[in-house]
Design brief:
MreC; six-stranded antiparallel β-barrel; Cell/Rod_MreC_2; Cell/Rod_1; alpha+beta; Cell shape-determining protein MreC; disordered C terminus; cell shape
Amino acid sequence: MKPLFSKGPSLGVRLLVLVVMSVALMVVDSRFDLLKPVRSQMGLVLMESYWITDLPQRMWQGVAGQFGSRTELIAENEKLKTEALLLQGRLQKLAALTEQNVRLRELLNSSALVNEKVEVAELIGVDPNPFTHRILINKGERDGVFLGQPVLDARGLMGQVVELMPYTSRVLLLTDTTHSIPVQVNRNGLRAIASGTGNPERLELRHVADTADIKEGDLLVSSGMGQRFPAGYPVATVNEVIHDSGQPFAIVRAIPTAALNRSRYMLLVFSDRRTPEERATEAAIAQEEADRQGAGHTPPAATPAPAHAAQPASGNAPAAAPTTPSPAPAQPAATPAQPRRQ
């Protein structure tokens, strides 16, 4: 009967045998290529064991990396959103400055086309009443603004000053229901009255005959007939003409050329501030002076006039002082000549 625990070689002998075998394998491996296939197969087997033993650590790193990456991504996303908002704000500011520069350049170009003296004003307020179209500008009586002064932007007439304050003024726009302006069709000179409708994008022409020569696309300009707006400024463009055979007048609608709801900068036109009575008086005086000059100029033309009498007629017309006394020496020269002719 065999014993349950058989007695084998001692541990020292086993260690020695293993050491000798290891040294022999190392010598054979370094000197010969016999163990390369064995090493390759052992490396393949050991690689699987390495992957299995390293799996927990890699799983832990993956989970920690996922949570860490998500936190970092959230923080980075918030940072990028903040930077994007800041950049968008700066971009909007630059866009606003660009548009403001464009509008100021348009005003500069339009002021060069206006013969009258102009001054740039800025919009600082809008009337909150939805039934009135009035705006507030930053120029007032101290700046020389006067009642009824025309206001225009880079595209056309906007309205007129209706209320004065020391440093601000209130402007009534063309589209207000209480405002009307005499206009004429730029194509053929047809005159009409353009009235506000309360719609900032529409004007209506009152009492235009159904047979009048007006059509879509016609440009309406100020006629100057109201003694308030200078003649020749763009007012609106006709966009709709409705003819009704049963009505004596056509329905004519137009779109204002000025950007009434968008213009921030505008021009105040300092044209002729004389009243109609003053203009009529001065025109009558000028006509009388012209008549006197014409009457004094006729006799020297009929008879040989001396050199000193002909000089005032050939002089400049505005010099009224030298031309007025010229008829006095011309009349005596013609009186003694009549007896000799008889």
